[in-house]
Write a structure and sequence with these properties.
The structure holds 2 protein chains of 2 kinds. By secondary structure, chain A is α+β, with helices and mostly antiparallel strands. Chain A folds into 2 domains: 178 residues, no CATH class; 193 residues, no CATH class. In chain A, 50% of the residues lie in helices and 14% in strands. Chain A has 16 helices and 10 strands. Chain A has a 6-stranded mixed barrel. Chain A is elongated, with a radius of gyration of 31 Å. Chain A starts with a helix and ends with a helix. By secondary structure, chain B is α+β, with helices and mostly antiparallel strands. Chain B has 2 domains: 171 residues, no CATH class; 203 residues, no CATH class. In chain B, 49% of the residues lie in helices and 17% in strands. In chain B, the strands form 3 sheets. A 6-stranded mixed beta barrel of chain B has the order 3-4-10-7-9-8. In chain B, strands 1, 2, 12, 13 and 14 form a 5-stranded antiparallel β-sheet that branches. Chain B has a two-stranded parallel sheet with strand order 6-11. In chain B, helix 2 packs antiparallel against helix 8, helix 2 packs across helix 10 and helix 3 packs across helix 6. The longest helix of chain B has 37 residues. The model of chain B has no long low-confidence stretch (mean pLDDT 89). Classes of the chains: A alpha+beta, B alpha+beta.
């Protein structure tokens, strides 16, 4: 029976072409608008490291005090003194400090002009903590951190540019005029949003080119290539003064397993801040935070407001399209009251009429879904007009989006058809037969 | 015409009536808010930066193997490199003027701090006024096309240089009128002093410019968007940035000549596709999201209005078909064509009116919700009023075609079976 109803449904699409076209277009546009905005929203609101987001935490310590901090919240990064103190305490399973670096790379020989390279100064734990994939080699060791070694991990992309993609472990790379030994080459790795550096980025950037030991970057007195935020009187002049100042520029991360470790680390942070208060460095009560990845993304408002508002507007738009569809289906079905009357008189049950019209609605939904799919493909390609390229790149028409588009179109139309189909099934056969 | 028969008929078509009214209400709510958002975005995008934006481009480059800016010796070397670049750029044919500058309005890379009338008021203190600094030299006025309202421009004698993270005293500064009004509400800021970034050394305000936006175009700088301070100091670091004004019509030619020229001066530097950008590109990039949002909202509004109109046409056509015989009876009993036309028009007016009332409530509710969750301001009532009139007109326009068809039903159809 299903096949027969489906056939009837397809045939009836042709019967009122204008009305049907209106419905198909309403559903098509509605579902496409929702899917395009959803594809962007999905891209920006995703969990960048799903299997570990609950174990990675960013400690914050209020080094500015209630007079100068942002509405009671501690600064979003640490100053040098606090960052080094947290590292030295070794209270977490794994821990790293990081800050962005802007450097230049000299390609080998003298054949080319220098390239700009974006990277990070990190500790050895960075690689296992954030599950950085390696193509060749690996990260450096904790001993290298201590030894302040001139070692570097480069991205597959930079490796392609410098070494043509060959295994370059052991080769030298010249960054800002200093030579570094390559210890590892990463696979493609660019978590989006870039949860680990929301202090200097808005979360969406091209992949980094290199990673070098934090201790080494300090030896070079390499300034942060990202944000730096200061309070109070700026009296420092040289590098040493800068390190002792209250300027924040370092992002710390710790890995903690389980609630007990988290509670322990939180207590440690509070006691650290309390010690600073006793020592007279802070003139205020401890004000610390320990947020995991998702809490941090939320706190930093990573999802652009444009994305949320356009998703909302698109959903409202889809709702209107569905209301429109209910009305049009009602008109389409009840126009055939006479026909329904005849079928009922010939013995069709209400249930059968109901099923037939729901299936007919589903065919309308499917047609709308196909149109919606075309519009979505078109729209996803045009998302670049709407969002910065870094975000637009994330919106893709993949298999799940195709499936979702069709599914949403069909289900929404069938839902919209409940009432019109119910009205159709209630048609009184006797009355219809009499009046015609 | 009496409303009673219309209301009685509508009672027989509850579902259709409710659907049209609901659709009109939701359309009104969404379109009002969307147009309000579009209006706000357009207003934002059209804000003047205070610069003469044509024939202006920006160079941002980085030196390779540059000396450290932390030693006095390194600072001098870096400054010499920067002056060499400036001299080369100023000699380039087609160039009108060049100024070193750490950022430009809308570039979203800023140095912010605070200025105060109190000596030693710390950054972040409530007594200070937030500002964004532009470190530049005496060529900044012709280069950016800033307009002085009081005092004087910088002269070559004002210009100092310093390492990027050094904190030197700032003897003189030029500020925007917005900032001058904050510091000296009674006017006469020129010649007076202020203290910048918690310093205890005074900074004399030598001039005031009409307008100059800060580099940040986002929400971060929204509460001090016009509080700029110009300091006549070249910053020396492993990177340098220049603003270049070309003679009219020579922008493209000069931009093409810049990269080879700078490489000729010193090949040890990084200059890529992004290093030389016209100001129009900086503006477009800063407002991309706003323009995109406006386009999206515009497209959705148009489709929404079309869908709603189509829905009204569809349902009214259905009603006309259903009431074919009754219309014939009315015509046979003496109703004129215009009476039938009016019947459907008034019917639609009633439904649209009810929809509009609900829509006004929804529109204001949606606006209130957006205000609490996003950076949105209160929507002026004018938008809602225009929206109400628009949906009523839309309803009448949509109902006209089916209503005219109804009015053309011939009286004789009353005698035929339906």
């Amino acid at each position: 029976m299903f096949g027969h109803y489906l056939q009837l449904g397809l045939r009836s699409l042709r019967r009122n072409p204008a009305l049907t076209a209106l419905m198909v277009m309403a559903i098509g546009f509605g579902v496409a608008a929702s899917m395009i905005t959803y594809s962007v929203f999905r891209a920006v609101s995703g969990n960048p490291i799903p299997d570990k987001s609950a174990q990675l935490f960013i400690p914050q310590v209020d080094s500015w005090g209630p007079q100068q901090n942002e509405k009671g919240e501690p600064p979003e990064a640490l100053n040098y003194v606090d960052a080094m103190a947290l590292m030295r305490a070794q209270q977490a399973k794994r821990q790293t400090l990081l800050y962005p670096l802007l450097m230049s790379v000299m390609p080998g020989g003298d054949r080319d002009l220098p390239l700009a390279a974006n990277g990070y100064a990190v500790d050895s734990d960075f690689f296992p903590m954030f599950e950085v994939p390696f193509q060749y080699g690996g990260g450096w060791s904790a001993q290298d951190d201590q030894a302040r070694s001139a070692e570097v991990v480069i991205s597959g992309q930079l490796n392609q540019k410098l070494f043509g993609g060959a295994d370059s472990v052991g080769h030298m790379v010249n960054l800002n005029g200093h030579d570094y030994r390559v210890v590892g080459v990463t696979g493609h790795w660019n978590p989006k949003p870039r949860f680990f550096d929301l202090f200097s980025t808005s979360g969406f950037k091209d992949a980094s080119d290199f990673y070098m030991p934090f201790s080494r970057a300090l030896d070079l007195k390499a300034r942060t290539g990202g944000r730096n935020s200061c309070r109070g009187s700026l009296t420092f002049t040289g590098w040493e003064d800068y390190l002792q100042s209250n300027c924040v520029w370092i992002t710390p991360w710790v890995e903690l397993d389980g609630a007990a470790d988290v509670a322990h680390y939180r207590r440690f942070l509070e006691s650290y801040a309390a010690d600073q208060q006793r020592a007279g460095r802070f003139a205020w009560a401890p004000n610390v935070r320990l947020r995991n990845v998702m809490q941090w993304l939320d706190h930093e408002h990573v999802v652009p407001p444009e994305s949320r508002i356009s998703l909302l507007v698109a959903l409202g738009f889809f709702l209107i399209c569905l209301i429109n569809t209910i009305g049009l289906l009602l008109a389409k079905f009840l126009r055939r009251a006479g026909e329904i009357g005849v079928r009922r008189a010939l013995g069709a049950s209400r249930r059968e009429i109901y099923t037939q019209y729901l299936i007919e609605a589903a065919t309308v939904g499917l047609a709308g879904g196909v149109l919606g799919l075309l519009l979505t493909a078109f729209g996803v390609a045009g998302v670049g007009v709407l969002f910065p390229p870094q975000i637009a790149k994330l919106a893709q028409l993949d298999l799940s989006l195709v499936g979702l588009t069709l599914l949403v179109a069909v289900i929404a139309t069938v839902l919209a058809a409940f009432y019109p189909a119910w009205r159709a099934a209630r048609v009184q056969p006797a009355w219809q037969l009499k009046s015609s | 015409m009496k409303l009673h028969p219309i209301l009685a008929a509508l009672r027989k078509h509850k579902a259709g009536t409710v659907l049209i009214a609901l659709q009109i209400a939701l359309t009104l709510a969404i379109v009002c808010n969307a147009i309000f958002i579009i209006g706000q975005r357009i207003q934002r995008v059209n804000r003047a930066t205070g610069l003469d934006e044509s024939n202006l481009f920006f160079v941002s480059q980085q030196w390779v193997g540059a000396p450290s800016a932390d030693t006095p010796d390194g600072v001098e070397k870096l400054d010499a490199m920067q002056r060499e670049d400036l001299a080369a750029l100023r000699n380039l044919p087609g160039v009108a003027s060049v100024a070193p500058i750490n950022s430009l309005p809308l570039l979203n890379s800023s140095w912010t701090g605070s200025v105060s009338l109190k000596s030693g008021a710390e950054i972040g203190d409530k007594t200070g006024t937030r500002t964004a600094y532009y470190f530049t030299d005496e060529q900044v006025f012709p280069t950016l096309g800033l307009k002085l309202v009081a005092g004087r421009a910088f002269n070559a004698g004002d210009v100092q240089h310093q390492g990027f993270r050094e904190n030197r005293d700032r003897p003189v500064a030029i500020i925007t009128r917005a900032l001058a009004d904050k510091l000296y509400p009674k006017g006469g800021a020129v010649g007076k002093v202020m203290y910048s970034d918690g310093s205890s050394a005074p900074t004399t305000i030598v001039g005031v410019v009409t307008r100059m936006q800060i580099p940040s175009s986002g929400s971060f700088g929204s509460d001090f968007a016009w509080n700029s301070t110009l300091i006549p100091t070249r910053l020396d670091a492993n990177f340098a940035r220049y603003a270049v004004r070309t003679r009219p019509g020579q922008l493209d030619a000069v931009m093409h000549a810049v990269t080879p020229l700078l490489y000729k001066v010193n090949p040890l530097r990084v200059l890529d596709d992004d290093s030389v950008r016209p100001f129009s590109d900086i503006r477009a990039r800063a407002y991309r999201a706003d323009v995109g949002m406006a386009v999206l909202m515009g497209v959705i509004c148009l489709i929404l209005i079309a869908v709603t109109a189509a829905g009204i046409v569809g349902l009214t056509s259905f009603w006309v078909g259903q009431r074919h015989r009754q219309i014939g009876v009315r015509r046979a009993l003496g109703a004129r064509k215009i009476d039938i036309l009016h019947y459907f028009q008034i019917e639609n007016g009633l439904i649209a009116g009810v929809g509009a009332v609900i829509g006004v409530i929804l529109a204001l509710g949606l606006n209130a919700w957006l205000m609490t969750h996003y950076e949105m301001t209160r929507m002026p009532v004018l938008y809602v009023l225009v929206g109400v009139i628009a949906v009523l007109v839309l309803g009448q326009a949509a109902v006209f075609v089916p209503a005219r068809r109804a009015s053309n039903v011939s009286p004789v159809s009353a005698t035929r079976a339906a």
